[in-house]
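Quarterly update from the structural biology core.
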Amino acid sequence: MDTEILNNGFNGTDNIIDLIPASRVFSVGHDRNSEAIVATTALEARSNACLALLTQAAMERTAALSVMANRLASIAPNGNQFYAMFVAEFAKKTLERLEERW
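Predicted structure, tokenized:
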């Protein structure tokens, strides 16, 4: 390596420190760390997106079951307590599954 180029032609004393080789070594390790951080962040983002989609689907299905329970309650009011229990049990089991995954 040509020290004249690195030091812009300065032929100084031992007190002068050349930072260019150090920064190159740092940048190589830094690039690997950056790649790992980006990969980890991308994986977390995908995981969060999956969790959001699963949660959204669970909420929509719970809402659909609730609407159906209300309709059935108006048609056959004697089963109202059971309709509510079905909806509550579905919601409970769905939450448990989501908690197991994440």
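The chain has a mean pLDDT of 81.
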